[in-house]
Write a structure and sequence with these properties.
Keywords: Repeat, WD repeat. By secondary structure, this protein is mostly beta strands. 0% of the residues lie in helices and 51% in strands. The protein has one domain (22-346): YVTN repeat-like/Quinoprotein amine dehydrogenase (Methylamine Dehydrogenase, Chain H, 7 Propeller). The protein is built from no helices and 30 strands. A four-stranded antiparallel β-sheet has the order 1-28-27-26, with no helix packed on it. A four-stranded antiparallel β-sheet has the order 2-3-4-5, with no helix packed on it.
Length: 348
């Protein structure tokens, strides 16, 4: 008779000290890009903490949002520039080079919604920024760092998608034209051609607002979550038409964030039920349910080396090492996490 499988692992370690709920996470390699990555966290209190994963302590604290919640963090290709978005209706650009923690620029955000912005590198010193626009259903596109307005994307007159909830700028390998995926309040996902300022396609994914999504440009496939008890997996064909491939039922309702790991083997969801759920990205097979937090998980993030971070309303950040990235493996080593077997109890 086979031995009983072991329960899911504990976190590799836990970061404490934000003193408020964690709403945004982002890994980056630091100015030199050597050693373990640094982790950035954004909190309800308006602070951004920079964490060393070696000492497991905050090495710097950035205070630039007037005590208002930080909802999005993104480093730029240069490595030492950071964008932070807050509920103070500001996007802040920080210079983190050589120990500096200075705000060097600011961009107003005209929407009080929860929509996170997105960036797309356009060269070594230029990038495109998509942010919620002045109208409730609009997305504004800027060329940065000049802050030149490229366009405002407004849904067609007969469409009523509501507010944009999440954005992702991207560019197909076969074309230089920038594209934007936008998840909306009505549960739809739309693909915009930024140059033409038009919607290429739109697909209904959820009966509730899209709370988070991620897109795999190599597979032309995305996944989204909402307040309901299901994930939606959708694809983009060669004619730029979106279609829902399948839905995956969940045990409990409410997904705040979804992230695909950089190697495109697994994905993680942030649950209102205090749990992180891990799935095989291609098959959507449930791999593990990570139970550690005592409040809603607002955000998840993957590092390039495969580390997973989860931020919660319980003011803690958990760090997990699951299904390590292996250069000689085409699929994650299903069944093991930190040397321990993930048992059937871990499958959602």
């Amino acid at each position: 008779m086979a031995a009983s499988p072991l329960p899911p692992p504990d976190p590799q370690f836990v970061l404490r000290g934000t003193h408020s709920a964690v709403h945004a996470l982002h890994f980056f390699g630091g100015a030199q890009g050597q050693g373990r990555p640094l982790l950035l966290s954004g909190s309800l209190s308006g602070l951004v903490h920079i964490w060393s994963l070696q000492t497991r302590r905050a090495v710097a604290t950035l205070d630039g949002h007037g005590g208002k919640c930080v909802t999005w963090l993104q480093t730029l290709p240069q490595g030492h520039l950071l964008l932070s978005q807050g509920r103070d209706l500001k996007l802040r650009l920080w210079d983190l080079a050589e120990g500096r923690n200075a705000v060097v620029d600011s961009v107003p955000v005209e929407s009080m919604g929860f929509c996170r912005s997105s960036v797309l590198a356009r060269g070594p010193e230029r990038w495109m920024l998509a942010k919620p626009g002045g109208g409730s259903d609009e997305v504004q596109i800027l060329e940065m760092p000049s802050k030149t307005s490229v366009c405002t994307l407004k849904p067609e007159a007969d469409a009523k998608p509501g507010m944009p909830m999440c954005l992702e700028l991207w560019q197909a390998d076969s074309s230089p034209r920038p594209l934007l995926l936008a998840g909306y309040e009505d549960g739809s996902v739309a693909l915009w051609d930024v140059s033409e300022r038009k919607v290429c396609s739109r697909v209904a994914c959820h009966p509730e607002p899209v709370m988070g999504f991620d897109f795999d440009s190599q597979k032309a496939r995305g996944v989204s979550g909402s307040a309901e008890k299901a994930l939606a997996v959708w694809s983009l064909d060669e004619q730029q038409a979106l279609q829902v491939c399948r839905t995956h039922e969940l045990t409990n309702p409410g997904i705040a964030d979804v992230k695909i790991r950089p190697d495109r083997k697994i994905l993680a969801t942030a649950g209102w039920d205090h749990r992180v759920r891990v799935f095989h990205w291609w098959t959507m097979k449930p791999l593990a349910v990570l139970s550690f937090h005592s409040a809603t998980i607002h955000c998840v993030a993957f590092a390039t080396d495969g580390l997973l971070a989860a931020g919660s309303g319980d003011q803690r950040i958990s760090i997990w090492s699951l299904y390590p990235i292996r250069s000689d493996a085409s699929t994650p080593s299903v069944g093991h996490a930190e040397g321990r077997e993930v048992g059937t109890q871990a499958l959602a």
